[in-house]
Amino acid sequence: QVQLVESGPGLVEPSQTLSLTCTVSGDSITTNYYYWSWIRQPPGKGLEWMGAISWIGSTSYSPSLKSRTSISRDTSKNQFTLQLSSVTPEDTAVYYCARDRRWVINDRRIGSWGQGTQVTVSS
Out of 26, 81, 84, 93, which could bridge 18 as a Cys pair, Cβ 3.0 to 4.6 Å? Predict the structure, then answer.
């Protein structure tokens, strides 16, 4: 069974770049036809899909975040990473990584999800 674990700093200062890593076990991130996503949930709000990387390394991003978001991978470590630049307090959220056969995922009943990690943007 696939397992996903998010890791990274819990506190980021405004204007800095947020970097998170998702470590995958039980499956390879190069397994055919799977997409590996980052999703976030700000306090009191719904889930927001941020972007994903495919099994062949192609990427897709939410239009609202595209200018600040980059997703990459390290196949040797079976990890994929999120970078979100120029963060503001509005980027405070629980950040999740997930696996599914679709590019876009925003329902925790679908696919396989990590447990989430809290990131707070504050000085």
Answer: 84
Which residue ranges in the chain fall short of pLDDT 50? none
Report angle CA 61, 117, 49 to the nearest 5 degrees: 20
Query: Residues 49, 65: contact at Cβ < 8 Å?
Result: no
Q: How far apart are the first and last CA of the chain?
A: 39
Phi-psi region of 26 (alpha: psi -120 to 50; beta: other; left: phi over 0): left
pLDDT at 39: 98
Measure the CA–CA gap between 42 and 8, rounded to whole angstroms. Answer: 17
Edge-to-edge order in the sheet of strand 79-84: 3-7, 18-25, 79-84, 69-74
Return the HEC string of 3-71: EEEEECCCEECCCCCEEEEEEEECCCCCCCCCEEEEEEECCCCCCEEEEEEECCCCEEECCCCHHHEEE
Strand partners, 53: 36, 59
